[in-house]
Amino acid sequence: MKRIISVAAIALLALSSGNAIGYETDVHYGLTRWLARSAGFSEVEADEIARANERTDTGALDAKHAMIWRLCMLRDKNASARTRILHFRSQNPVPKDPPDRPVSHTESFAWLEVKTILNEHGTDSADRLNRFGQALHGLQDALSHAGIPDTVAICSRQWMWAHPEERGGYRSHQADLTYKDVPSCMTMAAITYDATSLMARNLGRGKAERFSRWAHDVELFCRADSKSGKVDWFRRRGMGQLAKPIVRTTSLRAGIEFYDDVPDLDLLPKMANLKPIATDIMLSEIVDATRSDLKSSPVPSDVRDWFNEFFQSWFAADQQGITEVASRFFAESVEVWPGARLKPRMSAAFLLYWRIRDHGQAEDLAFRENAFTATLTSEQFLPPTSDWQSYLIRERAQERPFLLVQRDGPKGVEYIAFAVLKRAPTDVIIFVAQPGAKALEITQASSIVVH
Ligand SMILES: [Zn+2]
């Protein structure tokens, strides 16, 4: 018989699951590629534009740990400035309070990079397309990130970029999902097409057709509300081979099947003469800086062992066993941000939440009004495993399953673990542990997505 697990309390997890949003692979790679083909680019060229665009997000999965460490906790100027260009196009730079740096696609800064590349003369065309693809990324994100960046409690208020409060706040995935705001999706597609079409004409390939020619197709794309729905859209438009890898990393509900075992999209540049783009440069800078943080302040090996034990127990437990894991590793109450605390039952729910197999479904549960009555069958959870590392994306700074750093907090030394699940590849899950009633215990748990 199927075990029915009550996740009655899971709605409260919205409190602890901070998600910055931005469009995802369906937009940055899939739709961008299709629009570039529609604007007159060849398969190879359209692919290169889409790859460079997408690399800005998923090319960084293994560096998101270091990114959050440097950007959110250490106020890394460089990381913040580049994040603004790549994903959060606000006219005003950091450091500033969020209301003083709203993101908007109508301000000149949002267009600056795209316009500069459009107006170039005599530069290498392959390199130009690569940079153009990446420049489109921030312009597209300006639609999903539109508004005042939300404040993420665990991060520095004046420095962190997070998705806007008016679009669900940093705890919601709403604006990732094109069907939640079709007009914004249509505007994003129209400006992507217009810019791409101008680029094609500048390079002598343009078809000079208006966006209205494609508006109906785009509307169907925007309205598709599951991974399966998007797969179907891409299949019907000649992108069947790429369809499943495109949807796998999105936050959409699965739909008629799961896409767990689908291979990654190949995002490596294919054309000749390509130089590293801004995102590649930023990531190596952040990873290098994190390596030197670890060198100057190494984490004791018994702390690393303790965290290994925690992760292993978390993924080896069945749903019932999670409660025992929470009481073993978490403090009596766990801070999700200053003043908001999870009781022990909720700490278990926090751990359980990340074990839900379909991340889109997890989002639905966490943010639905009536989630208190929701139930899940055991098949809807990732199965317990003894190979806990297989559920995690390895981080790049130390090439370990999770990044572990230390810093001096207000109450003494804090050990901070950053982990990214393969099943939810844009969420960085954060655990802060300190000596307490137990030798070590988790006192804060949170998550942030930057894309
Ligand atoms: Zn992005």
Topology:
Layout: E1 4-6, H1 25-38, H2 43-58, H3 64-73, H4 77-86, H5 108-118, H6 125-144, H7 182-202, H8 215-223, H9 227-235, H10 240-248, H11 278-296, H12 301-316, H13 321-329, E2 330-337, E3 340-342, H14 344-353, H15 359-367, E4 375-377, E5 403-409, E6 412-419, E7 427-434, E8 441-449
Parallel strand pairs: 2-8
Antiparallel strand pairs: 1-4, 2-3, 5-6, 6-7, 7-8
Helix pairs in contact: 1-2, 1-7, 1-10, 2-6, 3-11, 4-11, 5-6, 6-7, 7-8, 9-10, 13-14
Architecture overview:
Helices cover 43% and strands 11% of the residues. It is an alpha+beta fold and 451 residues long. It is built from 15 helices and 8 strands. The chain has helices spanning 25-38, 43-58, 64-73, 77-86, 108-118, 125-144, 182-202, 215-223, 227-235, 240-248, 278-296, 301-316, 321-329, 344-353, 359-367, and strands at 4-6, 330-337, 340-342, 375-377, 403-409, 412-419, 427-434, 441-449. The strands form 2 sheets. Strands 3-2-8-7-6-5 form a 6-stranded mixed β-sheet, with helices on both faces. Strands 1-4 form a two-stranded antiparallel sheet. A hairpin with a 2-residue loop joins strand 2 (330-337) and strand 3 (340-342). Zinc ion is lined by residues 22, 56-57, 87, 137, 141, 451.
Low-pLDDT runs of 5+ residues are 1-21, 367-373
The number of helical runs is: 15
The helicity comes to 40-55%
- The CA-CA distance between the termini, in Å, is 40 Å
Structural class: alpha+beta
Rg, rounded, reads 22 Å
**Residue-averaged pLDDT:** 86
Strand order of the largest sheet: 3-2-8-7-6-5
Identify the bound ligands.
zinc ion
**Biggest beta-sheet profile:** 6 strands, mixed
Number of strands: 8
Beta-strand proportion: 5-15%
Q: Secondary-structure element order, as H and E? A: EHHHHHHHHHHHHHEEHHEEEEE
> Could you say which overall geometry the principal axes of the C-alpha atoms support?
globular
